[in-house]
Amino acid sequence: MRVSGPTNLNLLASYIDRFIALVGSDRWFKRAEQLDQEQRKSPFRWKIVADYHWLEMAISFQVDVLAKEGRLLPELTDELILAALNFAATTVGVHSLLSPKARQVLEGRLRDALKAETGFAPIYLELDLAQRLMDWGYDVEFSDMEGTAQFDLRFSRASFVGEVECKSLSADAGRQIHRKDFYRFMEAIAPELMAHTNLKRQEILVITLEGRLSPNTSSQAELLEAALSTLRNNVPAIIEGSHFKLERRLRTEVLANTPIHDQKALYKACGLAFGPNPHIAGGFTETEGCLVVMRSQREDDTSKPMLEAMRKAASQFSGNRPAFIAIQDHGIEAADLMLPHLRRRAGILSYALFGHYGAAHVNATYVTGFGAVFARNGEVGTPAFAVPNPAPRYPIDPSDAAPFLVSLSDADYADAIGAPLPAPNISYLPIEAPDTSEPPASEDE
Fold first, then answer.
1. CA-CA distance, 8 to 396, in Å (whole number)?
2. What is the pLDDT of residues 138-158, one digit of tens each?
3. Of 268, 269, 266, 219, whose CA–CA distance to 244 is shortest?
4. Cα(322)–Cα(164) distance, integer angstroms
5. Which residue of 5, 66, 430, 431 has the fewest CB atoms within a 10 Å radius of its CB?
6. How many C-beta atoms surround the C-beta of residue 105 within 10 A?
């Protein structure tokens, strides 16, 4: 199968109605209305919708633009909107070439995605990657949808044939504090946060949990009441509960030298002050404000779900040809894909998969992010990096599987994303590879 993606807004606009028809117009607009109402309830509900359902909101917004203007407007599109429109066009093109049975499967997955808490993330990864393979000149077969294999994609060019299995990880996988639960907690204390400004103080409310944050609001009752009390005036600066501790700290004690209007700088400083992976919300004006920092004494373990996903994917291949695992990490930005600790984790887990778990038939693992896209010259790109197997069962030339194995220099990669390199030699993974020297991670834009 080959599908040519449209290259301009006028062509992209022609796919919107056809995409929505695949999902079901009534279903689509009912869900769009629900999400719109949800995001208007509070800044924290807006954040949940923006993180998990940006694709649905982007397409729905363009429906309104098209109805009012008769065309899509470049000034009203950004990289996420372009990514959503490209996804819609790819979906329509692929659907038209599938067998009747596979069309029903795709339609069912789209409808399931519309009501899923994680939105379209899993199907987005599969179709976006398929489009990229086709753009590189490969013929792509949707093996799982067609019912011919357990893996997602079979791609071929000339005599080369490869297999791909896609796994999309939740942003909350392996984490003690889930993002949605944190935002819902923040919404519950929002009125007291607003009232806190009357105190004319700049404070940090540090919430330390013994373990995970329960998604059950009744289980949060004690914590919620303590947080509300701590935010009020003339209460103890420290409150301890059955499974938590709350501390009220002055901003000047912790973040005195951090610019208050630089969100990234504030988050980085809080990470240094309160440990890795805190959840942070709130902010300061020149004279008042409150930043809420929530952390857990129990460490996150994001490696376990990632390794489990890799091992499951490895078991789904035929084992008779080169295979590639595509992992989509939800909740990271394009620039995050350059972070050394993220690459090192992927490298360690990949080498464990190749060596310890015997997945020699897997030629590389490929890591990207849901919504981690960038726009350049009017086109949208999906950055990723790959960790090649140093001793694959089926050795191939990198050009055979170019989207996974053709390398890009660190400087070119950073330039394409439009972000500075966070460290030198980000492609070098300083970990021991099984039975061979350490290869650099390949990169793809």
1. 36
2. 999 999 999 999 999 999 999
3. 219
4. 9
5. 430
6. 16
Backbone angles phi, psi at 271, to 5 degrees: -65, -40
**pTM above threshold 0.85:** yes
Secondary structure (DSSP) of 273-305 = HH-SS-EEEEEE-SS-EEEEEEEESSPP--HHH
User: What count of Cα atoms within 13 Å lies in the side-chain half-sphere of residue 354?
Assistant: 27
CA nearest neighbour of 385 among 420, 337, 417: 337
Comparing 131 with 435, the larger pLDDT belongs to 131
What does the pLDDT read at residue 256? 78
| CB burial string 30-63: b at 16+ within 10 A, e below | ebbeebeeebeebebbebbbebbbbbbbbbbbbb
Return d(Cα 385, Cα 403) in angstroms, integer: 10
d(CA 319, CA 163): 9
pLDDT band at 432 (very low <50, low <70, confident <90, very high): low
275 — pLDDT class (breaks 50, 70, 90): confident
Dist CA 16 CA 18 (whole Å): 5
Angle 121-135/100-115 helices, nearest 10 degrees? 130
Structure tokens at 311: 């091992």
Helix (H) and strand (E) counts in the chain: 16, 14
Three-class DSSP category at 126: helix
Query: In whole angstroms, what is the distance from residue 162 CA to residue 402 CA?
Result: 11
Residue with token string 């726009």: 375
pLDDT of the residue at 3: 76
Positive or negative CA dihedral for 315, 316, 321, 322?
negative
Q: Per-residue pLDDT tens for 67-100?
A: 999 999 989 989 999 999 999 999 999 999 999 9
Joined together, the tokens standing for residue 222 give 């004690």
